[in-house]
Design brief:
Blueprint (H helix, E strand, L loop, with lengths): L1 H35 L3 H23 L6 H14 L1 H8 L5 H9 L3 E2 H22 L3 H20 L2 E2 L1
Parallel strand pairs: 1-2
Helix pairs in contact: 2-3, 3-4, 6-7
Length: 160
């Protein structure tokens, strides 16, 4: 009875592993086809959205209320689907290209970038909470957002 159960379990897990591999290959093939067949209107809209995100990210460098990193990552995602030229331009940028490339490849973020991001975020949040926002529930929401973003940044792999 135990041998039958073990063989059945092995067969089922092997079957699901093979299905998972075949599904991944099929999805990769469909993604390649979709990239080649992207509607020209959608392609142009993605390029425009990418440049808007780059602009907002650049403004976010100087305005503490506007986050920089999410906009640049969103721009990289838009460009990766619409224009290889603009995507390469973004990830080879001398100021923030390396950060985007490392994040996309799953290499992580340097400890210096983590410390800088968390410090600047908390300085901006504390300034907003103490001097700008006087409504307690909104102050509480900002604090919770700061804690969640801090944990997210700390959970990202550290680049060595």
């Amino acid at each position: 009875m135990d041998t039958t159960r073990i063989l059945l379990k092995y067969f089922i897990t092997s079957f699901f592993k093979v299905c998972k591999i075949l599904w991944a290959k099929r999805m990769a093939r469909r993604t390649k086809q979709k990239d080649q067949e992207l509607n020209p209107l959608i392609r142009k809209l993605l390029i425009i959205a990418g440049f808007i995100c780059v602009g907002l990210g650049l403004i976010g460098i100087f305005l503490p209320v506007l986050p920089t990193t999410p906009f640049l990552l969103l721009a990289a995602a838009c460009f990766s689907r619409s224009s290889k030229r603009f995507h390469n331009w973004l990830i080879t940028n001398r100021w923030f290209g390396e950060y985007i490339k490392n994040y996309q490849e799953g290499n992580g973020i340097s400890i210096k970038a983590k410390i800088c991001a968390i410090s600047l975020m908390w300085i901006a949040l504390m300034f907003s909470i103490l001097f700008v926002i006087k409504i307690f529930p909104i102050q509480l929401i900002l604090t919770i957002i700061g804690i969640v973003v801090t944990f997210h940044i700390l959970r990202i792999k550290t680049l060595k």
